[in-house]
Write a structure and sequence with these properties.
The complex is a heterodimer of chains A (about 240) and B (about 70).
Chain A (H helix, E strand, L loop, with lengths): L8 H11 L3 E8 L10 H4 L6 E5 L6 H15 L3 E4 L12 H13 L3 E6 L3 H9 L4 E4 L13 H10 L5 E3 L5 H9 L4 E3 L2 H4 L4 H21 L19
Parallel strand pairs in A: 1-2, 3-4, 4-5, 6-7
Helix pairs in contact in A: 1-9, 3-4, 5-6, 7-9
Chain B lengths: L5 E6 L2 E6 L4 H8 L7 E4 L2 E2 L15 E9 L2
Parallel strand pairs in B: 1-5
Antiparallel strand pairs in B: 1-2, 3-4, 3-5
Classes of the chains: A alpha/beta (about 240), B mainly beta (about 70).
Chain lengths: ~240, ~70
């Protein structure tokens, strides 16, 4: 789960707990020197109890992203990081050339890099070959709530990789998470859909159930799709 | 009494006057910064936390102190 956009730290911590999330993304920013009483994230969400995933949100080139993640590693010794290099301030789509370059550098430096990317199977393959430890294609633009726009591509990416596949960005409601899991994804990363829901706690719980339902559905093996009807009751014994 | 010379540095993007020969550790103590929860960069180079008490700040040094906040 993402930890941004909540009313306050307390609300964020409660929503995370209700969602059952294993990992939370966090941003690296300047310490507020003038207002020392500002609450610290670590005081509300204990990094010993939940995995912190430092993210490069807000970085628009490789230089900024690498600088941010090297600092993140210094804060807590985390090697597991999320790389997100944006290319456009309006649609927030990933800048994939810079992302690919950064993935290579970070993997060589010993980072375990989970990579935010577009839903392009060819690019996903190149990221895997460059040392990514997880592929995180977008469902739709960050914060858009549009849900998964290209299910076919997500299915293709699933079929070609054994790496963890996590849908990152663009989910709007719990059923979007179910669809992601039914496509064979290993998880979803959600922020705005929960933080900005009218009832964030209820939505966090809804996402938890949606992920479980989607995963169970995927593992259960769905029926074939048929054009025509197929009656559920036997014909024998009809009066 | 000898007057202490002041120098100007840039701290998190803002100008700050400090005493000459100030160490990074002293600055962090003054600001009440929890060292375990931050990372420090001096002129775009990450500072080894073990050396905070050895590095003296110079005029026009750029120091960045960062931590984790909520984010997507």
């Amino acid at each position: 789960m993402g930890t941004g956009k909540y009313k306050n730290m307390k609300e964020c911590a409660k929503a995370i707990k209700l969602s059952g999330a294993d990992i939370v993304t966090v941003a690296v920013r300047r310490v507020n020197i003038t207002d020392k009483k500002k609450p610290l994230l670590m005081d509300y969400i204990d990094p010993k109890k939940i995995t912190y995933l430092p993210n490069t949100a807000g970085c628009f080139n490789s230089f900024e992203a690498l600088r941010t993640l090297r600092l993140a590693r210094e804060i807590g010794g985390w090697k597991l990081v999320k790389l997100e290099v944006l290319g456009d301030k309006k649609n927030l789509f990933p800048e994939m050339i810079e992302t690919l370059k950064s993935t290579e550098v970070l993997a060589k430096e010993g980072f375990k890099v989970m990579v935010y990317c577009n839903d392009d199977p060819l690019m996903a393959k190149r990221l895997e070959n460059s040392g990514a430890c997880a592929i995180m294609p977008l469902a739709a633009p960050i914060g858009s709530g549009l849900g998964i726009l290209n299910k076919v591509n997500i299915k293709i990416i699933r079929s070609q990789t054994k790496l963890p596949l996590i849908i990152d960005a663009g989910l709007g409601q719990a059923s979007d998470a179910t669809i992601a899991m039914e496509l064979g994804c290993d998880g979803v990363l959600v922020n705005t859909a929960i933080a900005k829901a009218k009832k964030p706690f209820d939505m966090a719980l809804a996402f938890k159930h949606a992920v479980i339902a989607g995963r169970q559905s995927y593992l259960s093996g769905r029926i074939e799709k048929n054009l025509m009807g197929n009656a559920s009751s036997p014909k024998k014994g009809i009066i | 009494m000898k007057k202490i010379k002041k120098i100007e540095i840039k701290l998190n993007g803002k100008n700050k006057l400090i005493n000459e020969n100030y160490k990074i550790q002293t600055l962090l103590n003054d600001l009440n910064i929890p060292i375990k929860k931050v990372a420090i960069e001096l002129n775009q180079e990450i500072v080894d936390k073990k050396k905070l008490n050895k590095i003296k700040l110079k005029k026009n040094d750029k120091i960045e102190i960062v931590h984790f906040i909520g984010g997507g």
